[in-house]
Amino acid sequence: MALLAAAWWWWATPSRRPLFAWLLLLGSAAFLTLVTKVAFMGWGLGIEALDFTGLSGHSMLAAAIYPVLARTLASPAAVPPRWAIVAGYALAAVISLSRVVIGAHSVSEVVLGFAVGGAASAVALMLETRHPPPLPKHWLVVGLAGWLTLMPVVAAPSGTHGMVQRLAKALSDRDVLFTRADLHRLRPPG
After folding, report:
1. Which parts of the chain span the membrane according to its record (predicted)?
2. pTM of the complete model
């Protein structure tokens, strides 16, 4: 999704500053998310009082990508840009909530992941308002809507969690990684 939005932005508008800012912020947010996960898995660095073991990658990516994508695809004649952006953040919020509902993340992990991703998209969107890209062709919007509809049903798991686990094992030189249950057992006595 990010690559699609970035490609359209690159092709459709002469202003590269918002695109580069967004990609830099998106990369920085992804790196921060990775660091928090590896720090916990490899060394047990979390916050027990907040039930925090690392930023939610789903929440971060959704908040970083969907508002930008919605703004990029919105026709100002049909949907005011601010409402498209609100819709993008609303979709990101639903995705974030789903992570708590299925027990994949705690509320703090989701809220902080959403905040980091939301900051990345907000900065890019503030820069972008000076030079909005033209609306993509209808076939692109229809194709994207179809992909968004089918993706949750047919997409295979990405395997990124396994990659993060392997990285944490390699960096920490541990055979067994820390888990959420360990976070609550690591509380200092007293």
Report:
1. 20-40, 82-102, 109-127, 139-159
2. 0.84
